[in-house]
């Protein structure tokens, strides 16, 4: 039974978060940045910020591995610098490659594992435990988690009842960002339903701008597209069943979701560069090309999570004015709310590694990165005022308000061989589907064959 099975949610809870997020974004996305806004009292951060106690670690050294690059890596290094300042330890960031489990395997085989790794999938945490790599969190880190995290975010870092992961970073993966000027020129409106999204896309297309930018070179972006459509259309119960492979990928609900996706992916000239161009476009470029070129960008919309703000920040576009956002539209009766995240896991048990895990579980660490933008924390004691613009504050508030009521990224729950490996499994199958969106049955058959093999072996 997979980790997510301990946190089954209700349809009503998912609906509540979707409504909250939709209403809040409608109010704030048009309002521009408000960097000086104070916390409205919705968080309890003022009671706990700066209170985590860390040991003196003069002379200790640590290596921390993560797949983060660019601005995300740069910002995280500022968090590590604060840990160094407060403890006297020396921390080195080790850039990792996807799939991180394979990267860590080679490091461990060579006798040089990092002390701590940031793992982007619950399935990867489970594998690290099964391989004997991961070490349980100590009492201090667990106490910090219990103080700052909802039970659901604690549970997805557990394996067989033991706490191994600190979900330092979260993501709301049910957002579509758009070029405000391109929408304005086209007379397009923010959609609330899938059909309205197609209507807006046609208006944008008619104005001379390609509707969608898709980072198809990174297969994980395509799994996120599928998950939002599937959750909204098939519902939370089916979503949980497919996530645990209790129903097959040949199920009619999967056929329906792929057929719906093909309304965008298979529509001629709706995707920047066509399928071939999209398959050569990595995620960062899919964002930046949406917000460069003035009112004639390469595309008007790009789907992905709140973390897209890091890449928007690399352009001249300003979040809330030039770059706006709306919740992923409802395909079925309710809009989807899909979350993801990265968990810190200890690989070399030591006083220093446990101290870093404790620090990352505290509001102290998360507040530093929140202020830098493009980051979302599931830590409920991070002050909402720490986020640098009103759009980000709204997304963060919606996440915390959801408590345990969310669905975690489906591919991240899967065994790494199926849901988290470039060029293989779901990533590759959906890339092939982007190239040929008419082959629904063939795509289903490939997905089921590879899922059955991966879930059967647990790898």
From TrEMBL:
Keyword DNA damage carried by entry: no
Matches recorded under InterPro entries: Bact_solute-bd_prot1, SBP
Keywords in alphabetical order: Signal, Transport
Family: Belongs to the bacterial solute-binding protein 1 family.
Pfam families on file: SBP_bac_1 (PF01547)
Record PANTHER family: ARABINOSE-BINDING PROTEIN-RELATED, OSMOPROTECTIVE COMPOUNDS-BINDING PROTEIN GGTB
Protein name per Swiss-Prot or TrEMBL: Sugar ABC transporter substrate-binding protein
UniProt signal peptide: 1-29
TM segment ranges: none
PROSITE patterns: PROKAR_LIPOPROTEIN (PS51257)
Top-level taxonomic group: Bacteria
